[in-house]
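Structure representation:
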Amino acid sequence: MAKTPAAPASFEAAMAELEDIVTRMEQGSLPLAEALASYQRGAVLLAYCQNALRDAQQQVRVLEDGMLKAFGDDDAMRDD
């Protein structure tokens, strides 16, 4: 049975591994089975990166909403 690759340690690790896979595939020297396995791993890494970016974007929205409310409250206080 084939061993499942470990989940990336971080977004940066996933990006580095994905870039390595792309470089090796672009060279065109991988045997078919390895190229297919690399493509599959790349798809997993891409999904991981997309999810990490989506999560970060959501966190930024939450932070911005909180900060915008705070700034709005401060502005209202200055108008008095």
Residues 47-80 form one domain. The two ends are 71 Å apart (CA to CA). The mean pLDDT is 86. The CA atoms of residues 6 and 36 lie 18 Å apart.
